[in-house]
Amino acid sequence: MTLALINRVSDWNSQLFRELKGKFKPRNLATTIAASLIFQGTLVLFLYILLPGEKDKYSSYQVCHAIGVGKIGSNCIINCQEWWVQIFLVVSWILPLILLVCGVGVLIADMAKEERRGTLNFIRLSPQSSESILIGKMLGVPALIYLGVALAIPLHLVSAIGAGVSFSFLFSFYLLNGFYF
Prior knowledge:
Distance between the termini: 29 Å
Strand content: 5-15%
Oligomer: single chain
Largest sheet: 2 strands, antiparallel
């Protein structure tokens, strides 16, 4: 099964196959997975620390209701939906930014490395079409970044559910970002 898939990818786009073979090494995969999980954990932990404690007077995550008419005091509860909205918004801004900035940066660095080594002319002279080479480079070079972002999608989905975001909005968000990148 795996060999058949590898053969299919290499037949479809050999440049993509070479890029993926060079990027998907155990050390690179472990680093990417660890970086994505550390980012997600740090984000959730940071926003968890911002939740109000028992002695906090005011927080944007609190919803307070008066105990009774004329009585002093209030009954405050934590608005979890607002907390999930914050996570959803941060992840919604960070993921496309990472794809754009890091993806373009990695592509530029790869092209500069190919030019410096002198292998860019070798690639240009290959029998592949220029479209095939371009697609292989654009999908293969930032493949680890794509993996790291894909690992953050479950947090984005869970936070969207917790925030009460409609699935039509979420679908359109992924559809537009997919076409953009």
